[in-house]
Amino acid sequence: MDAAFTEEQDEIRRTLRELLHKRCGPDEVKAAVRTPQGHDEALWRQLAQQLGLPGLALPAAYGGVGCGPTELALACEETGRALLPSPLIATAVLAAPLILALGTERQRAELLPAIAAGELTGTLAVPGGQLATALALTGPNDGDWAGGGRSGGIQARPCEGGWRLYGEAAQVLDGHSAGVLLVAAHTGGFARSRTPLFLVRAEARDGATGGPAATGTTTGMAASAAPGPDAATPGARAATRRLLRIRQTPMDETRPQARIELRDVPAELLGEVDGGETGSGEAAVAAALAATGASAAAALAAEAVGAADAALARTVEYVQAREQFGRPIGSFQAVQHRLADLYVSVQAARSAAYYAAWSAGGGRSGPHHRAEPGVGGLALAQALETLRTVAAEAVQLHGGIGFTWEHDAHLYFKRAACDELLLGPVHRLRARAAEEAGLFSGTTREAVGV
After folding, report:
1. Which among 72, 36, 31, 80 is positioned nearest to 51, based on CA atoms?
2. Which terminus of the chain is more exposed, N or C, with fewer CB under 10 A?
3. Residue by residue, what is the 3-state secondary structure of the chain?
4. Which residue windows does the record flag with biased composition (Low complexity) (predicted)?
5. Residue 286 reports pLDDT greater than 60
6. Is the predicted pLDDT of residue 131 greater than 80, yes or no?
7. pTM
């Protein structure tokens, strides 16, 4: 493994850091998260048009830059450093790779160039708060991870000209603003139970009636539930069809989330008609989700490392300026030891994130081989734990002002807490990584290809 970055990779990092330093300070972050979209749309367009950020890891044939997981991880490290509120993770890290892996040529040609240009955003909606399991990060995704169509999940039923979805999913990243939703929904009943992915456009149209499906977005915690898909008459069914997107209020406002409610909403199967009784379609979906999870873990780990590095830098700057007993508190040995430990933790987490990105990109096996088992989950666990530790120490070392909820240090503390709730917990990430690597089955050497 060559640990040195290329000139192109260094330029991606440098250019993005300079731009975000000018446009994404703490005050700008706090202002952006309070907009209806939850991010600065002008800045997002600039990142897309000047740097090609949404299409960084997409092939040039679809308007992308043609880079890989390593470049995307470097970009995410810089966005994490600035705590940039943007649809980058939901769109470029989750939705785009799945469309590329599973979509038909028509679907890829229709969606990916618009994503790469920054004209379209997307996200992955998984019911039951099972995002980490769906990506095979905290458990196997070859079973009933999407609820099996039971209450609280999403059900899909075929109809003339496509599919209809009914159900809801919470904690959907940027779900209130995404232009296209990739929805995991259960279909096939008991005998042929499977969970494919479906495309739902934010401006979905009702093919049966020719009119627009009812859609809505609100910031409240609840909305009146529409009647079920089996209303008395066709007219009643058309009247109740809607996609309701309710923006939630998470502790970390820089990571907008929404609850998606689908009431007999028209949808399109992502990819070709699946494998029916053979189950090959379900296997392809599970494999694509796992591959996406490996690269997503590397990107999210790098993002957490960037946030931890920025929090540490702010803390070091503060202890050098804050005086106690006539001298800077940074000169006290106890403070220096704590900061040194944090520095070592950040550097170790950064190395793990870089290795995970390199592995997700093919590593020593080449770009067409799957990532080394467990590497992404371990890197993500280490990065999340490091960010949590650094953020907590930053709050404490800032003293009385650091405990003020409005202080900038709490932006990092909130990011650490909410990311672990969304993607963890850390011990489950590590347990799954150990299981993938075969550490407790006596097959370690075969699992890692040694």
Report:
1. 72
2. C
3. CCCCCCHHHHHHHHHHHHHHHHHCCHHHHHHHCCCCCCCCHHHHHHHHHHHCHHHCCCCHHHCCCCCCHHHHHHHHHHHHHHCCCCCHHHHHHHHHHHHHHHCCHHHHHHHHHHHHCCCCCEEEECHHHCHHHHCCCCCCCCCCCCHHHCCCCEEEEEECCEEEEEEEEEEEECCCCCCEEEEECEECCCCCCECCEEEEECCCECCCCCCECEEEEECCCCCCCCCCCCCCCHHHHHHHCEEEEEECCCCCCCCCEEEEEEEEEEEEECCCCCCHHHCHHHHHHHHHHHHHHHHHHHHHHHHHHHHHHHHHHHHHHHHHHCEECCEEHHHCHHHHHHHHHHHHHHHHHHHHHHHHHHHHCCHHHCCCCCCCCCHHHHHHHHHHHHHHHHHHHHHHHCHHHHCCCCCCHHHHHHHHHHHHHHHCCHHHHHHHHHHHHCCCCCCHHHHCCC
4. 211-235
5. yes
6. yes
7. 0.88
CB 26 within 8 A of CB 253: no
Give the whole-angstrom CA distance, residue 164 versus residue 156: 6
Does the domain at residues 124-277 carry the CATH identifier 2.40.110.10? yes
Q: What is the CATH architecture of 7-121?
A: Orthogonal Bundle (1.10)
pLDDT digits (tens, 9 = 90+) for 209-226: 333 333 444 443 333 333
Q: How far apart are CA 320 and CA 414, in angstroms?
A: 25
Give the pLDDT mean for 237-251: 78
Extract the tokens encoding 312: 């540490």
Which of 171-175, 231-235, 371-375 has maximum average pLDDT? 171-175
Tens of pLDDT, residues 6-29 = 999 999 999 999 999 999 999 999
pLDDT per position as a tens digit, 163-174: 999 999 999 999
Q: In the chain, which residues fall in CATH 1.10.540.10?
A: 7-121
pLDDT at 185: 92
pLDDT digits (tens, 9 = 90+) for 257-280: 999 999 999 999 999 865 444 334
Q: Where in the chain are all domains bearing CATH 1.20.140.10?
A: 282-447
Q: What's the whole-number average pLDDT of the chain?
A: 85
Residue 274: its pLDDT value, please? 52
Which CATH code is given to the segment(s) 282-447?
1.20.140.10
Q: How far is CA 274 from CA 159, 183, 188, 374, in A?
A: 16, 16, 11, 28
